[in-house]
Amino acid sequence: MGFFFITGYPRSRTAWLSRFFTTDKSFCFHEEIWVEPSFESLIAKMRDGLNHWDYVGDSDPSLPFVADEIIQNWPGSPLVIINRGHERALDWLSENGVPPYYAAVGVFKMTQGLEKLKTLPHLEVDYKDLVDENCVCKIWEYLVPALDWDLERYRMLNKVNIQKGATDYRDLRISGGWRKLL
Question: What is the pTM of this model?
Answer without folding.
Answer: 0.85
